[in-house]
What does this fold into?
Amino acid sequence: MSDGIIKVLPNVVADRIAAGEVIERPASVVKELVENALDARARRIEVELEAGGKSLVRVTDDGFGMTVEDALACFKRHATSKIDRFEDLELIRTYGFRGEALPSIGAVSRVRLVTRFHDQDRGTEVIFEGGRLLRHGEAGAPVGADIVVRDLFYNVPARRKFLKTLAGERAVCVEVVSRMALVRPDVSFHLLADGKTLLALPPADEFQRILDYFGPKSSRGGQRIEYESPGVGLVHGVIWHPNILHRPNRRGILVFVNGRPVRERLVVDSVSNACRGITPARRYPQAVVFLKLPGSRIDVNVHPAKAEVKFADEGAIRRLVKAGVARALSDAGVDLTAAMPLASGEPNERFAPPPPGQPFPSAVYGPRAEAGHDDVPFDVGLPEREREVGESVGPLPRSRASEEQMDFTTEAALPLYSDAPWEIRGQFADTFILVEYADRLLVIDQHAAHERVIYEELAARERGGSAASQELLLPPLVELSAADAGRVSELLGLLETYGFRVETAGASAFRVMAVPEFVGAGEEQQVAVEVLSELARIGDDAPLAQLSHLMRSTIACKAAIRAGERLTREGMISLVRRLLASSNRSTCPHGRPTTAELSETQIRRWFRRS
It folds into this structure.
């Protein structure tokens, strides 16, 4: 009888495979060690990194420490002080409970642990390398623990080669520590990277710690969330007024369940839905949401790195979060009833027509940026007397023709008619350029068109060398959160390709020395600040091609002509010519149409002309 083909793997191989589920990168080491320090009731935690954590991760705490027996046992798989039986999982109040962190770290790195239990005079040193105990013995040490992890994945080269750049890995580590600091504002956190202090957070209240996380831009518009539903749980945190501070993606919504940072789409969507109708299009609110739930109502054991949880009653959690956010916004004076979708046939005063003689309200958030114009959207060219009469009469009776849909074609006609004669006919609402060509009227969104033009020019510069720059006489200082600063640091080289020259000015600040030459006079500082702030939210997780697209889109959006900006005739002609020369002129980089066209036949049909 031949031997079977299924074999039991050696322990060293099995440990390295198992470690891959828990330890993905240096930030995973930081997370596990900081969580252990918090479980040990530490009041001060210091984290030190070298080479983004690839060469060294060191976490020192002043918790209650370990005895020599515990210091040796903690490197054994599934050795834990948190649970004794399976039923204890429902009562978990600690971060760790599986007993996998230190064995996993020790399997793929070189570890030195020095610790001293709070009621003992001498400490213990343990040296662990590649899954093997090399030595242990007595050592002098203060109460607490000092764990040094060197050469992560030195024995798993396949995993090491997939790590990001030093700046990229450092940024993720900063993010991990920052989020843990949000959970425990009563604990002091200090983060040092390659000799530079990136975080220095003394104990603070929850609200102040949240403001520290998001940086100076978050100081306005934050509203506390505090709501409890009997039998379900408590939600608390901070939500920013969606018209004051919002994000291009959902990364600004941070979720914590029973003190544990998690990726929980259900909660994120609940926050977004609660703000629907008051958040600008394609933007998302910024919020920090803490959920405190009974242990029996959640499962924290559904993800290897405990980054996800499962709720026993998802509907109840949705209602809890939405109610908490709605109450916070209502307390801030936000009229949510006007923004919420209504049942069929139910009137909504916000969208009711204005009284006769009153202009329709603007569809944008806030007043339109224009000088010297009244509320009439455009000058219809009537004599003054006729205009007064027209404004005083009631609504005109609706004709059958007026009920026909105005069929604007957004399959932009520019590519088809680029060789035909065209003429600028004016600017409507300081936002749209009107162009007549052949038998058609073309309406061009000046912001979307300029975005496309800038985007294409940046792409050409990226292929052919760096874009020309203009030096700033007074370089602005841009301050970001530590986590955002780490992400921007990763993008400085690519920024230079597009004409920005940015220098670091401290742990989480940057000095913008130059901007691209296409940035308008007087707007250099505003564009520089907005671009850096927006790029911090993009991050560097995307592939290079996608990252380049996101950066070009962001720069184009911030540097483009704004809606509501009055253009000269020469400026309109120049923009239309440059748009005609673009290879992808039908849409802006975000996918919105740059143009809409209306044929003479359609216009005649409205007025029943043959």
About this structure: The first helix runs from residue 11 to 22. DSSP finds 18 helices and 25 strands in the chain. The chain has three domains: 11-203, 207-337, 401-610.
